[in-house]
């Protein structure tokens, strides 16, 4: 029997690979001759770097970079030396959590994201997988691009700045000092939003308020973003202002599209391609997936449902495991998950349930019972 395991992390408890390993152990207790493949899983958001690095045998690298505001941060990213690949989350350098209670959208910058990329380039990386969710910024990506050597100039020919407050001042772009290795780099961007850069559905209007953009400033800031887009179109010869995902992460999606030829993809698709999940599924009889909590949101494009869709393509049955199952999870059955189970085996506190050894034990024993039922019907 061929079984593929691809389960998202149980945040605060088990990583994707730790959860997958526990399921594998439970399977082999019952059917020791099974072919079992464990793959990392994430949806392109928080935890993606850890999952891919752990699952693909990479290492974590730490670099001191500019944070979203004045304070520097120690940002981590993943390095897969065998394929010269860096795996990053922009939130590691410019995330809204790093800004704390200070919501200053005109001052927040993606400069540290560019420093992370530059560090990886110097280490030999030419392939990049970057998640761009959870930003504190609305700078159109000029901070990141400035760190990579682009110069955004005002009417006097001086550098305009590296944050949203500079967008309306930019009149020209210079690329004389751009990192030359960027021409050899490929950027795959995990992006699950389709918003354009500007307008009522754009970065400033839709996502700006959570970053501190007020009603009074949003019209002016959106107009400044549109002005920057026009300058960019004149410089690059391409106009991505209305492209899907351009408004992601305060316009960082636009920067990747316009200046770095980035390929924006739904996070789950990018991850599945990165770990070659399609090939792993060939000939599979059963697939285990899941996440910390299964609910109605799981069916709306989250990782377990992405796995289920791929499994069905290969004719495999799908079982999902979760730390908790919430009302609405039944919609998962309509989206490719044949059956789902909570792993809790007795009443316990949340802290007890999330304790890694306890969660691992619960995962193993629940899997064992599922496999005993499956074995009985073989």
Question: What is the fold's blueprint, element by element?
Answer:
Blueprint: E1 2-5, H1 16-30, E2 35-38, H2 48-56, E3 59-66, E4 72-80, E5 85-89, H3 91-94, H4 111-122, E6 127-131, H5 142-147, E7 151-153, E8 172-174, E9 186-190, H6 203-207, H7 215-236, H8 252-259, E10 263-265, H9 267-274, H10 277-281, E11 286-294, H11 303-313, E12 317-325, E13 339-342, H12 350-354, H13 356-376
Helix pairs in contact: 1-13
Helix-strand pattern, N to C?
EHEHEEEHHEHEEEHHHEHHEHEEHH
Radius of gyration: 22 Å
Largest sheet: 6 strands, mixed
Average pLDDT value?
94
Helix content: 25-40%
Question: What is the molecular shape?
Answer: elongated
- Tally of separate helices: 13
Strand content: 15-25%
Strand order of the largest sheet: 3-4-5-6-9-10
Secondary-structure content class: alpha/beta
The total count of strands amounts to 13
Give the uncertain stretches in residue-range form: none
Distance between the termini: 10 Å
Give descriptors for this structure:
five-stranded parallel β-sheet; 35% helix; six-stranded mixed β-sheet; 19% strand; single chain; 13 helices
Brief digest:
The protein is α/β, with parallel strands linked by helices and 378 residues long. The protein has helices at residues 16-30, 48-56, 91-94, 111-122, 142-147, 203-207, 215-236, 252-259, 267-274, 277-281, 303-313, 350-354, 356-376; strands spanning 2-5, 35-38, 59-66, 72-80, 85-89, 127-131, 151-153, 172-174, 186-190, 263-265, 286-294, 317-325, 339-342.
């Amino acid at each position: 029997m061929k079984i593929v395991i691809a389960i998202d992390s149980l945040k605060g408890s088990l990583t994707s690979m730790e959860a997958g390993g526990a399921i594998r152990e439970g399977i082999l207790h019952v059917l020791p001759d099974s072919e079992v493949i464990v793959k990392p899983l994430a949806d392109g958001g928080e935890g993606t770097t850890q999952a891919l690095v752990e699952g693909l045998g990479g290492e974590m690298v730490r670099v001191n970079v500019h944070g979203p505001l004045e304070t520097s941060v120690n940002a981590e990213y993943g390095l897969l030396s065998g394929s010269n690949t860096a795996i990053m989350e922009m939130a590691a350098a410019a995330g809204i959590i790093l800004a704390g209670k200070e919501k200053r959208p005109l001052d927040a910058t993606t400069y540290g994201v560019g420093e992370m990329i530059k560090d990886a380039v110097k280490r030999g990386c030419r392939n990049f997988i970057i998640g761009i969710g959870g930003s504190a910024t609305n700078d159109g990506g000029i901070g990141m691009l400035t760190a990579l050597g682009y110069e955004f100039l005002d009417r006097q020919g001086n550098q305009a700045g590296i944050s949203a407050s500079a967008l309306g001042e930019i009149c020209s772009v210079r690329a004389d000092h751009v990192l030359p290795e960027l021409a050899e780099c490929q950027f795959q961007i995990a992006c699950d939003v389709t918003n354009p850069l500007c307008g009522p559905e754009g970065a400033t209007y839709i996502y700006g308020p959570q970053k501190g953009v007020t009603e009074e400033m949003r019209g002016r800031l959106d107009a400044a973003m549109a002005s920057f887009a026009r300058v960019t179109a004149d410089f690059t010869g391409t106009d991505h202002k209305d492209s899907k995902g351009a408004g992601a992460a305060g316009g960082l999606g636009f920067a990747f599209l316009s200046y770095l030829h980035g390929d924006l993809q739904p996070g789950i698709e990018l991850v599945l391609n990165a770990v070659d999940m399609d090939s792993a599924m060939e000939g599979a009889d059963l697939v285990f997936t899941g996440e910390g909590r299964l609910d109605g949101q799981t069916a709306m494009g989250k990782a377990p449902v992405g796995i289920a869709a791929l499994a069905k393509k290969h004719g495999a049955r799908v079982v999902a495991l979760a730390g908790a199952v919430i009302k609405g999870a039944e919609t998962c059955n309509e989206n490719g998950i044949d059956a789902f189970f909570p792993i809790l085996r007795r009443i316990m506190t949340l802290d007890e349930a999330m304790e890694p050894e306890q969660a691992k034990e619960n995962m193993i024993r629940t899997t064992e019972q599922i496999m005993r039922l499956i074995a009985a019907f073989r």
